[in-house]
Design goal:
The protein is an all-alpha fold. It has six helices and no strands. The structure holds protoporphyrin IX containing FE.
Amino acid sequence: MFYYVPDVNRAYADIVDLMYVVPFGRFLRNSHRWGAHAMVITVSVHMFRVFLTGSYKPPRQFNWVVGVILLVLTFLLSFTGYLLPWDQLGYWAITVGTNMARATPLLGHEGPFSYILGMRPDNDIRFALLGGTSIDAPALLRAYVWHCIAIPVIASALMMVHFWRVRKDGGISGPL
Ligand code: HEM
């Protein structure tokens, strides 16, 4: 946050500076990116472990649901982070993702039953995600706020519930 500004005129240059000018910038950026990949893999392996040990069964079914929400938030953290370098990779990843959003039932202007809520290109879920009908400055700023503040706050609150439930459910499940 000290060296990166979510502005379309300088975001990419800030990332290049981070890589080649800022002391330890390349190490920080790479560890952040590899850390993100590792989080997606670790959460998926954790979910697989929980499934294999049947730890979704009562009384832990509530914690499984909290976990599923945490899994989605983990994916969204990586997805929103993708756009921030404002490079081709990020731009087209967001294009694909938000184009899928416009086909959302009820909420996307191309989705089924969207006429019920009167969805148009300038008021549907894709518009809300991008802050416009195209991927531009508002989209970059929204991705930045979701990535750096909103999702971390929501995920942290859910993790506290998750950890509390682990104890309330009698600790980590084990063989009967
Ligand atoms: C950010 C993501 C997540 C974090 C930080 C997290 C963290 C934890 C921790 C520290 C535990 C206790 C130790 C352990 O059992 O490994 C736990 C247990 C559990 N987690 Fe997660 N978890 C996450 C995502 C998930 C997901 C995606 C699921 C399933 C969809 C899930 C379901 C559970 C369940 C059911 C338990 C209780 C397991 C037991 O009692 O054996 N968690 N979680």
